[in-house]
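LOG
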Amino acid sequence: MKNSAIVLAAGSGSRMHSEVKKQYIEIAGKPLIYYSLNIMEKSFIDEVILVVSQGDIDYVKECIVEKYGFKKVKAIVEGGKQRYNSVQSGLSAVSSDCDYVFIHDGARPFITEDILERAKKAVIEYKACVVGMPVKDTIKIADKNGFTKTTPDRSTVWAVQTPQVFDYKFIKKLYDKLIEEEPVLIAHGINITDDAMVAEMYSDIKVKLVEGDYTNIKVTTPDDLVVAENLVKQSGE
């Protein structure tokens, strides 16, 4: 059984308000992207495909992959305009004999080996799974004017994280279809925000929710950096 990981690090990080792209901002002396790559390196994952912004391949190869000795990084490829374009680039670089692919946002530095193990167990059984956690807060659905419209049952609402994990051939086929139909999706204003949506749109396979961790945060804003610094200090990394 061969397990591959696609680590997405091609975002611009506009909400970080920094001249340095957020995936390269240092947390406790190491770039943000280091932490998830380090876990992948220590885990059962066999190969990593790192997807970066246009023009960043040489920098990432020298200053991150080679500097920190990440031997499992098989390829560094450029991402695309949208997240799904970057995922497609990663899927195209995965080894053809891959069984399962773990798609992970590099801006989530606190993935753990335990989360990866739970996801592996689920994808073997269900073919498609996503990591997440039940929400703690009451969620409101708003109307277009910013007024509350409905309140979903909190017990059924999860905040989805990554990795999102799939049978490789299954998700590759669905992404090929997505890219083929991209002009239609854009014309209809359909915004693909995660990989589970692709499975939901183009297959009848149910995507299993797998428990992640409340600390598996996505670093998006300067406030998140403060939280991330504290989490790294607590971990002793």
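LOG (cont.) second protein
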Amino acid sequence: MGLETKTLKQTTEKMIEQLGHLVPEFELKKKAELVHEINELKKERGAIILGHNYMEPALYHTVTDVVGDSLQLAQAAADTDCDPIIFCGVRFMAETAKILNPERTVLLPAKVAGCSLAESITAEDVRKLRENYPGVPIVAYVNTYADVKAEVDVCCTSSNAAKIVEALDSDVVIFLPDEYLAKNVAAETGKKIIVASQKDHGPSAGSKDFAVIGWAGKCEVHDQFTVEDVEAARKQFPNVQVLAHPECPPEVVEVADFTGSTSKMIDKVKSSSASKFLLLTECAMGDNIVAENPDKEMVRMCSVRCPHMNEITLEDTLNALKNNERIIDVPKEVRDKARKSLEKMLEYV
């Protein structure tokens, strides 16, 4: 048996052992060929593959060098010396890697890989908000495109959003673009919130008694979860632990047992003595957790996949490595301004 055949056989066996209870064996055998080729080519090129927690299991557990949430991957992108950087996540994440590594090639293995949140606000919207609220610091969730990041004072992730809002030490803060995350951060920090109108970029409520100005953007995945989902899960599985991402509606977060970023949710499952969990986030992550924690059970009430994250495939990851497909570029004038807001974000880890 040749070395390459032996290595492929080992890859296949390892994938079946780890993922066989989640993915059909015939599918894993086919994907093992892609995994083997990706890993060989990655070594030849000196590449690094970053994978978000929402990647499908056959990719997440086999070809990635670093996995995590937006903050962890931003840190990895800032620290790496590898070239190229293959970003298995959505476009705004790949843009962040390019901003932090302007001299390196960043590849996005997908045709579009957009984001409903990122598309809910533009750089022009931010400029108009500055006009309407002069002197008010603006925080942008990392789920925004580079031109928006270039117009704000600091970026944040769901992991450090509350910490950054409090650190600004300002009577009023503009928090963009996720309305639910803004409301959840306001609740966590004891602040009152209004939501700015997308039409006139001013307050949609008459009261001036507020400390956080939000924006009416929503994640198309987390917006689908309801209090009724939680009640139904608890009725059917009395001992289930409910974990909600802070992009969920505030009323859902309020009835959950735990709220945190994707990585904090993973850590919570690993450290918990509970055996059953309902994850109110992109459902592929449940499979990734179970693959590493076979003693944990994910209640299969989650059927919501992010259509944008779902664009990332092993096939396109291989094509990116082979052909430098879908190179991410950010104009220098945008990149330089956006880098400042991202570097400030990385100070609050």
